[in-house]
Write a structure and sequence with these properties.
about 650 residues, eight-stranded antiparallel beta sheet
Length: about 650
């Protein structure tokens, strides 16, 4: 076994690898960018080295620097995690030439699966079923249009050297093909340095089912059950579960053996995942093979009782697989959700900012949180905005769903927009409980998933006022002083204080009168009798006989009240301020977040139509189109392709036609 390894990654996967390595007595070397100098993985490691500036191409993608640090630190092996250099054959080859073990598959195996089109050819020869499509090298747009028409629509365009939903487009008819191809190629080139695409027939209601495979250097290969990853947004997974619901033992065996056959066809070693499209009729088709550990590997660990990172370290150090196929068993059901800094209400736009408040569910045999952040960490625009993976296990799927809902209720985040509320709605969906799954689940249930929920704003504002009152009291040393009773104390009068709270641009005034421990709260002419106590961030109250216990956080002038999975943010100011946003009347279009302009689709003075794409931005490795809100004229452009822009920056001047 290795004595020291280097983890060539960041975030939760770096922390995950360090945890297992330390259990095995292995010392760990971390690497970090300037943005990650105080990151959790840096503090967990035994030693850490600076790579360079925040952009990944100047830090986590610098193979030469990483290998130099490995040699300098005496690391015998490099664990690449997932993303970055994990599936880079050049890096794996460089490790071999430097005499450092690459904790992953052999170089030829990475090369074979690195191109989706080449992988399809290999799978065809190995007898693994494929979806009809074109995977060749001819990338002439006219030729690709011709092939697309032959394959038929709907059609899926995919980056041949990509993953994670980037460089992917669904084309519904021949007329859409040219624009979709240009966008897919541009995104593929920016994300992976290669604009080659492949295409395949788009199944309208498939499930995404994948098989975890493992192989060693002694010719042994096994599969560790399957995972259903059908619920996705932007072609990226949101919920994963194992085993796949409504999936028979016979189907598991057939797909598992096909996955092992795929691994053996390329002389695979280590951890890998073979992804399949599982159609309604029970047929399945090879999609791709990921030559690394998957983000969703914890659900497999939870149902098999195995540590897959430990397996990786054993195999990479030249040891055989710990178990044979017959020894691998499945127990219970596991579900994983990905907690992201993003805005589901606005097309899942990635969010940035500081995690000013972070409370995670308590870990147990039933609940697991894999994360790379702690409270006050920044979610920056340089890396994937995933905050954590929340994983639960129980004896069956129904109980696992209930366990997940409770864990989501216990998860509280302030400071950045996040998808906790959206995840709760997903898991609460009756169709999810019935396992009516396919890759279009979110689109199919969009109306109910994004419907306005029951608002408890009235109660939340009362709770925010109580929190501010009790916080003020607790900060006062002499709690017998009338100033400790209420900041609005007056001689011979019942002390009263008013809290102006702004919620979504609406001002709510809550007045609190205090007589001893009994409080009276008045809001919009309605008075509520209350008692309350504050222990840290836990507020316990009795509102007109209704006992309520919630968590509350405050960062500067923002007070966040958490009622179940919903967060209510109030701006507390001693003077009410009215902010008027006249950007719409000014005819300007602003950047939705920090990012880079990758394409300017119009010129100054151009007459455009409503919905026409004006600029294309890239942020968090994804593209976002800035479209004309209505017919009009572009008066001025303020940025060119390649320019960096900040959140809220005016991108152009626009005059509506009317």
């Amino acid at each position: 076994m290795f004595r020291k390894i280097l983890i060539a990654n960041r975030g939760e996967i770096a922390c995950r690898v360090i945890e297992t390595a330390h259990k095995l007595g292995i010392r760990c070397v971390a690497v970090y960018s300037e943005a990650d100098a105080n990151a959790r993985h840096v503090h967990m490691a035994d030693e850490a080295f600076l790579l360079g500036p925040a952009p990944s191409k100047e830090s986590y993608l610098r193979a030469d620097k990483i290998l130099a640090i490995a040699k300098l630190s005496g690391a015998e092996a490099v664990h690449p995690g997932y993303g970055f250099l994990s599936e880079n054959e050049g890096f794996a080859q460089a490790c071999a030439e430097a005499g450092v073990v690459f904790i992953g598959p052999p170089v030829p195996a990475i090369a074979a699966m690195g191109s989706k089109s080449a992988a399809k050819e290999i799978m065809t020869k190995a007898g693994v079923p494929l979806v009809p499509g074109y995977h060749g090298d001819n990338q002439d747009p006219a030729f690709l249009q011709q092939q697309a028409d032959l394959v038929g629509y709907p059609l899926l365009l995919k980056a041949a050297y990509g993953g994670g939903g980037k460089g992917m487009r669904v084309v519904w008819n021949s007329g859409e093909f040219a624009e979709a191809l240009a966008g897919a190629k541009r995104e593929a080139l920016n994300g992976f340095g290669n604009d080659k695409v492949l295409m395949e027939r788009y199944l309208t209601k498939p499930r995404h089912v994948e098989i975890q495979v493992f192989a060693d250097s002694f010719g042994n290969a096994v599969y560790l059950a399957e995972r259903d990853c059908s619920i996705q947004r932007r072609h990226q997974k949101v919920i994963e579960e194992a085993p796949a619901p409504n999936f028979s033992a016979e189907q598991r065996k057939a797909m598992g053996e096909a996955a092992v056959k795929a691994a053996q066809a390329i002389a695979y070693q280590g951890a890998g995942t073979v992804e399949f499209l599982f159609d309604e009729d029970g047929s399945f088709y090879f999609m791709e093979m990921n030559t690394r550990l998957q983000v969703e590997h914890p659900v497999t660990e939870m149902i098999t009782g195995q540590d897959l990172v430990k397996w990786q370290l054993l195999v990479a150090s030249g040891q055989p697989l710990p178990l044979t196929q017959d020894q691998i068993t499945i127990d219970g059901h596991a579900i994983e959700v990905r907690v992201y800094a993003e805005d589901p209400e606005h097309d899942f736009l990635p969010a940035t900012g500081n995690l000013t408040y972070l409370r995670q569910p308590e870990a147990s045999r039933y609940v697991r949180v894999d994360t790379g952040v702690v409270e006050n960490d920044e979610v920056s625009p340089f890396y994937d905005p995933m905050i954590a993976k929340l994983i639960v296990w129980d004896e069956n799927r129904d109980r696992a769903i209930a366990r997940m809902l409770r864990a989501l209720d216990d998860y509280r985040i302030a400071g950045v927009k996040n998808n906790l509320n959206f995840l709760t709605r997903l898991v609460e969906q009756p169709a999810f409980a019935k396992a009516e799954l396919d890759t279009h689940f979110i689109e199919r249930h969009k109306e109910s998933l994004f419907a306005p929920g029951q608002s408890e704003t009235e109660q939340a504002s009362l709770l925010a006022a109580l929190y501010l009152l009790l916080k003020e009291r607790s900060d006062n040393v002499d709690d017998q002083s009338p100033w400790a009773l209420c900041s609005g104390w007056r001689l011979n009068e019942v002390p009263t204080v008013s809290f102006p709270l702004i919620y979504q641009d609406e001002t709510r005034l809550v007045s609190v009168s205090s007589e001893g421990k009994q409080l009276s709260l008045t809001q919009q002419g309605v008075t509520t009798s209350a008692t309350a106590s504050l222990q840290g961030d836990e507020l316990q109250t009795n509102l007109n006989g209704h006992q309520v216990k919630v968590r509350v956080s405050q960062y500067q002038d923002i007070v966040s009240v958490f009622i179940k999975h919903q967060r209510y943010d109030f701006i507390y100011q001693t003077q009410v301020q009215v902010v008027v946003d006249d950007s719409a009347s000014a005819g300007s279009l602003t950047a939705p977040m920090n990012g880079t302009i990758v394409a300017v689709m119009v010129e100054k003075g151009a007459t455009v139509s409503a919905g026409q794409t004006l600029l294309v931005m890239e942020a968090m490795k994804m593209e976002y189109s800035i479209k004309a809100p209505k017919d009009g004229v572009v008066d001025q452009l303020f940025y060119a392709a390649g320019d960096l822009v900040k959140d809220g920056a005016q991108l152009l001047d626009f005059t509506p036609a009317d």
